[in-house]
Amino acid sequence: MMRDCEKRYRRSPRLPGYDYSQSGAYFVTICTNDRLCLFGDLTDGVMSLNPAGDMVCKAWSELPERYQGVNIDAFVVMPNHVHGIIVLNSIDVGTAPRGRPYSSPFTVDDNDRQPQGVAPTDGLPMSLPDIVHRLKSWTTKLYSDGVKQYEWTPFHDRLWQHNYYEHVIRNESDLHRIRQYILENPAAWSNDEENPNNPRNR
């Protein structure tokens, strides 16, 4: 039976006709399959990552190194989902010369990072779905290795839900609002729709 969380994300399709490889900032939420809490514990508004959570955080932080033209902004790993902002900074995403400076469509004051490792993209711009798919595949492989080598909690069928939630960030105020939401998400865990212990989800 499909979980409520998965139903909601399947009701959030990509915008018809929208080019998700174009320059812009995108807010994404990716949920574990069956809402399993695999990435650590949250106590008194503080998230304590376990080794699997550390792995996901590291994988996210390395996106700019792996994929040229991709940058990152605010991000948080929760017990059973992740929130983050992915920035595609150029119409030449995936084909720009190595070392091209980062240029956000908004004012992003995080540490700018230049691409170090370029993934093959067959000369085509990488789209948001491409990036999310690769992140999910990459972390699934690393998590599976952790299950085999370090006895991490096994997942059922797949690590992540098939779909994910996305929102096109359209202006500075939208960016600020979403950054605040991401940063404050751990403190709101008790009422989070993804929290399996929330009475509304039972």
List the helices and strands and how they pair.
Layout: H1 4-10, E1 24-31, E2 40-43, E3 46-49, H2 51-61, H3 63-66, E4 70-77, E5 81-88, H4 128-150, E6 165-169, H5 172-184
Helix pairs in contact: 2-4
Looking at the overall shape, the CATH architecture is 2-Layer Sandwich
Q: Please, how many domains?
A: 1
Which range does the strand content fall in?
15-25%
Radius of gyration: 17 Å
Q: Summarize the main sheet.
A: 4 strands, antiparallel
* Number of DSSP E strands: 6
Classified by CATH, the class is: Alpha Beta
Helix content: 25-40%
Strand order of the largest sheet: 4-5-1-6
Count of runs of 4 or more consecutive helical residues: 5
Q: Give the averaged pLDDT, no decimals.
A: 77
User: What does the oligomeric state look like here?
Assistant: single chain
Structural class: alpha+beta
Q: Encode the helix/strand succession as letters.
A: HEEEHHEEHEH
CATH topology: Alpha-Beta Plaits
First-to-last CA distance:
14 Å
Tell me the CATH superfamily: Transposase IS200-like
Shape: globular
Low-confidence stretches: 1-16, 90-123
Give me some keywords for this one.
Alpha-Beta Plaits, two-stranded antiparallel ribbon, globular, about 30% helix, alpha+beta, 6 strands, 5 helices, about 200 residues, 4-stranded antiparallel β-sheet
Question: How would you describe what is shown here?
Answer:
By secondary structure, this protein is α+β, with helices and mostly antiparallel strands. It has one domain: 2-Layer Sandwich (Alpha-Beta Plaits), CATH 3.30.70.1290.
Kindly summarize this structure in a few lines.
With 202 residues, the protein is an alpha+beta fold. It is built from 5 helices and 6 strands, in the order H-E-E-E-H-H-E-E-H-E-H. The two termini are 14 Å apart.
